[in-house]
Amino acid sequence: MDNNRGENLHIKLGRLILTIMAIVGLGLQGCQQDSPATENDIGQPAEIVERPEDPLSTPTIQPAELAETIATENLAEGNQPLWEDFLPPSIDPATAIPSPLRDLEISDEILVWVLLGSDTEPPFTGRTQAIHVLFIHPRFSKASLVSIPGDLYVYIPGYTMQRLNAAYALGGIETLRSTLTYNFGITPSRFVLAHPGDFQWLVDDIRTIDVTVFYPIPHVCGGIPAGLIQMDGALALCYASYRDGMDEIDRMRRQQQLLRVIFRKFSRDGNLVQLPVLYASYEGWVKTDVSLTELMDFIPFALRLADPDRISYFMIGWDQISIWQVHGYSQAQVFLPDQEGINEVLQQAINAVLIPSPLTNQVQTLEAQLTAAYQMTMTAIATPTQTITSTPFFTDTLEATSTGEPHEPTPTVTPIGYP
Questions:
Q1: N or C: which end of the chain has fewer CB within 10 A?
Q2: Under 8 Å CB-to-CB from 110, ≥6 apart: which residues?
């Protein structure tokens, strides 16, 4: 990215050669079929092959026409800018800036969290290729998860029109919060950001996960057949992160599937008893503003949430977006949002948590499992000669804690096909 910032824009031949090299490089990434362009610079999308045959692409608009459109559409009545009390753009946008989304109706009882997945290991700040908004209703013990594509082209207050996945990299969580408020009418009160190694480490810590693969994926991750597949951390990371061309929607489906599997495994067999140990293990790696005390208070809620059909899943998909080619020197493709369609999806997700429903007997079973696991842990602590391997999993974490040694993450091996 830093090399691209030093690129001499006046050497046209050099840019053409670099463009050809970039296209060839993208074509050689065997585990991402027809990979879309990623931006070499946060402010300057990389150049990729134009796809005029794409039926979702919009007609080409000349730069002069676009400039006139921006000049006339970015002012509301009374010469009030459409961005209202948000920060104005610092860079000329490639397309007209939409007005803020204000129509969402959300109860004060609903908590809003955002779950993020970075594409870069710390200490570097990368793009958030996984963006999932979580609506939580503690009193009704319900939640809705909405997945948002990172390539959605939105207004980042104080910056310009840009991919949503660049907001955190540009200004951290406050910039991302402001971006979500402007474009979606929601302001997350809490966030969790995990890196690729954190996710891989987590799956390995819980001793693999069983994932139902509905369609075989022979061309990535060493080949994944259809059926119930046991995944370790490396395979789960590859399954969650690879993308075939512009099909980010399918990747979001796989990410939602893995979130379901991991939550289901955590909530059963008393495994939530290990939450304090895991929190300490990931502290300094996973970024979050959720304290351990706050997280512990959510354990009873998590058990109720594990009751069937208490979590609803939504996504901003093909019906709410269209593919658009950024004009000018770049031919990058992004997703233009349909504000009305997005507002409808978000409102459905919010309404889903406002419908009360009775709990089943499964909650009592989960509570009994957690109580038994806690009693076993206390017995193990009180009796030095007793081994701590009786807990269903996280054995290595418990042993590290009992000896006072910090739990170190396993080395992260980037799987083939990870972007």
A1: N
A2: 135, 136, 137, 350, 353, 354
| pLDDT tier at 199, thresholds 50, 70, 90 | very high
Tokens at residue 369, please? Answer: 């499992």
**b (16+ CB within 10 A) / e for 302-337:** bbbbbbeebbbbbbbbeebbbbbbbbeebbbbbbbb
How far is CA 383 from its chain centroid?
A: 43
Span 115-168, pLDDT tens digits: 999 999 998 989 999 999 999 999 999 999 999 999 999 999 999 999 999 999
Q: Are 31 and 221 in contact (CB under 8 A)?
A: yes
Cα–Cα distance list, 168 to 42, 123, 156, 162, 175 (Å): 11, 14, 10, 12, 6
Instruction: Report the C-alpha gap between 66 and 119 in whole angstroms.
Output: 32
Q: What span, in angstroms and rounded, lies between the C-alpha atoms of 44 and 91? A: 11
The token pair at 103 is 């129509």
**In the numeric block, which tokens belong to residue 114?**
């955002």
CB burial class (10 A; 0-12, 13-18, 19+) of residue 409?
middle
With vertex at residue 31, the alpha carbon angle to CA 249 and CA 213, rounded to the nearest 5 degrees, is 55
Model confidence pLDDT, tens digit, residues 75-93: 555 566 888 889 999 999 9
Contacts of 391 (CB under 8 A, 6+ apart): 270, 273, 274, 373, 376, 377, 398
Alpha carbon distance 331, 328 (integer Å): 7
Q: Work out the percent of the chain whose per-residue pLDDT is above 70.
A: 71
